[in-house]
Write a structure and sequence with these properties.
heterodimer; A: about 90 residues; 3-stranded antiparallel beta sheet; 3 helices; about 25% strand; B: about 400 residues; alpha/beta; 9-stranded mixed beta sheet; globular
Chain lengths: ~90, ~400
């Protein structure tokens, strides 16, 4: 699973990106220069917690408290964050 | 012109998807521009009369209405938007409404203090256009000696940590400069580079013979771009936008007519695509008379080519009709005489030979030292078109 090791200790949403709820689309979106993505509920839940600098451990802790008993949460979060890092949705903080 | 429906809740015509949202608003603040690009897509009948422009209050009202409709990406454009003295105020209002704001500019009129003021007002992204890859060609195609200033301003934008995109419009007389431009863009720290081939509307259509490149020029520029991408696996994204005329399937008009984009012109006319004004026989609703929601949902203009119901053959029965939605309405008009036809870029169009006739001509021998003269976009040159109209 080494490929899923996040290369960031502390991270947050890319300061150049905008994360917000869009009533017209009934979803959270991430806005960036000349583009936007609609976020799934789980992606939005994770990114909501990345609005301030955080760490993988802190993030997983918080999510486990919100969704107790969910299996494989840490590896799902890790996978999402690696994707988010690749797409520059999150950056070192 | 508008159906009798003040509720603004009339169903959208013509497609099963009833939930179109104008997510992108292009605010053309003014047609005034210090640059004279002969490939400008603005209408040739530009007016020097700035008295017709929407006021600050009217623009703020447009921004509020668009935001309520779900617009979230906002481009301040023109002309040159820096000509408007209320730009920082508009950026601030847009930011407080929840827009992600982009400034599309030539950088002429920009300085470090303005960049700081725009950033403070919430500006998220600046796109600076270059008219050439060096001082001489930038002056030649833009009609202004502005290269050094643009370089200085791109560095300043990067220094102030605002995401920077560069735009380089390509045509027959500068395609060979793509490599030089990419090297410059990387040195300047750009995060995005758009290599946009000229699309033939407005002034560009008038200058088509002098601007349309040959196929081998495009292929060569694409090769140089791909080599650059391979050599520099850095953080700079490079987009190469090919010219429609060399494709055999058309591109969607603005992601689909009246599905995603909404343009408001300097005087308040609302358009599904920024070139749509050339289509005859249409009324162009204005924000001074109508609510933006009524225009988006119920106007004849926005429903005219929305979805697929309006199509004629070969589009109507085409299995690909939802992929390209019949292509560009303006191109259909300019090359077939009817905006309701298939975009003749499509090889299935009965008028496709009109496109190949144009590209065949562009493939002819071309001497960079004796190019076809270009008509530059300025108020003096615009007069001939205004006279022709009256």
């Amino acid at each position: 699973m080494s490929s899923l090791n996040l290369d960031l200790d502390s991270f947050a949403i890319n300061p150049h990106y905008g994360f917000q709820w869009e009533p017209a689309q009934q979803c959270h979106v991430l806005l960036f220069p000349e583009g936007l993505v609609k976020l799934s509920e789980s992606a939005a839940e994770i990114l909501r917690l990345c609005q301030q600098p955080t760490t993988l451990e802190a993030l997983v802790d918080e999510l486990e408290q919100m969704f107790p008993g969910v299996e494989g949460l840490e590896s799902d979060v890790r996978e999402f964050l690696n994707d988010a890092r690749e797409q520059e949705w999150i950056s070192p903080a | 012109m508008m159906p009798e429906n003040k509720s603004g809740s009339a169903p959208l015509k013509g497609d099963e998807d009833q939930s179109y949202i104008p997510m992108w608003l292009l605010a053309e603040l003014t047609y005034a521009c210090p640059v004279q690009c002969p490939y400008c897509s603005n209408p040739v009948q530009i007016s020097a009369n700035r008295k017709q422009e929407l006021t600050t209050e009217e623009w703020i009202d447009v921004l509020c209405q668009a935001r309520q409709l779900g617009a979230v990406q906002l481009g301040f454009s023109g002309g040159e938007p820096l000509v408007r003295s209320d730009l920082a105020e508009l950026i601030r209002e847009a930011t407080s409404l929840g827009f992600y704001t982009n400034l599309i500019t030539s950088a002429i009129g920009l300085d470090a203090d303005k960049i700081a003021a725009f950033k403070e007002a919430g500006l998220k992204h600046i796109q600076i256009s270059f008219q050439g890859s060096n001082r001489e060609s930038n002056a030649k195609f833009g009609g202004t000696d502005s290269f050094n200033h643009k370089m200085e301003m791109t560095r300043e934008v990067t220094r102030q940590k605002i995401p920077l995109g560069l735009n380089f419009v390509l045509h027959r007389q500068n395609l060979h400069q793509v490599g030089e431009f990419l090297e410059t863009a990387e040195l300047l720290g750009a995060e995005f580079v758009e290599l946009a081939n000229t699309q033939y509307y407005g002034w560009a259509k008038h200058n088509q013979e002098g601007l349309l490149p040959s196929k081998w020029q495009i292929e060569d520029a694409e090769r140089v771009t791909n080599e650059f991408r391979r050599r520099h696996k850095g953080n700079m994204d490079v987009f190469f936008v090919s010219p429609d005329y060399y494709d055999d399937r058309p591109k969607k008009c603005s992601n689909g007519w009246a599905t995603t984009f909404i343009t408001v012109t300097p005087e308040g006319d609302v358009l599904p695509c920024h070139a749509a004004k050339i289509i005859p026989g249409l009324d162009f609703p204005n924000v001074k008379q109508h609510k933006l929601s009524d225009i988006w949902r119920s106007s004849d203009l926005f429903n005219k080519y929305r979805g697929t119901d309006w199509m004629v053959e070969p589009c109507a029965s085409c299995p690909e009709k939802k992929i390209d939605l019949g292509g560009c309405r303006c191109q259909a008009l300019m090359l077939t005489g009817d905006a309701g036809n298939a975009d003749p870029v499509c090889s299935l169009s009965p008028y496709h030979d009109r496109v190949t006739a144009i590209t065949d001509q562009a493939d002819g021998v071309f001497d960079l030292n004796e190019p076809v003269p270009l008509l530059f976009r300025n108020m003096k040159n615009a007069k001939q078109f205004n006279t022709d109209q009256s």
